[in-house]
Input
Amino acid sequence: MKRAGSQNRITAFTLSECLLSLVVTSIVLVALSSLIQYTHALDLFLTRDTGLEFETACVQLQQYFDSAHLITVDAREVTAELDGDEVRLYQKADKLVIARHGGYQPILTELTEPVSFEGLNDTAVRVTCPKKGEMVVLFSATVF
Output
């Protein structure tokens, strides 16, 4: 932009520079919007997968303890006998684990609150995992 008859120049952006900055700004905003939508969709997928993890843990526990004999149940631990070995089900840090032969197998992960166990009768135990769900594990009815 120039003033007529004057030596002083006024500096300003040209029309093409303004249009170019608007195009770049709009591209950045569209990319940010699609990133937010992708993050939301991924969060929904991962939340659904957590429900599947709990259902899988229920099936695993039932199959594992199907032929085990229940020994003791308290609020923090279940002890059973399986093939002559002592097997314990308890929470270790943020995992629900089965301990046998000095090692342990994680069954359910990412537990944020304590798991509780409740003996329903001589052959059934209710396992309650806050924010995950509740399951009933049945044991063998044979008395040893």
User: Anything to note?
Assistant: The chain has one helix and eight strands. Strands lie at 69-73, 77-82, 85-92, 95-100, 103-108, 116-121, 124-129, 133-138. Residues 2 and 107 are 76 Å apart (CA to CA).
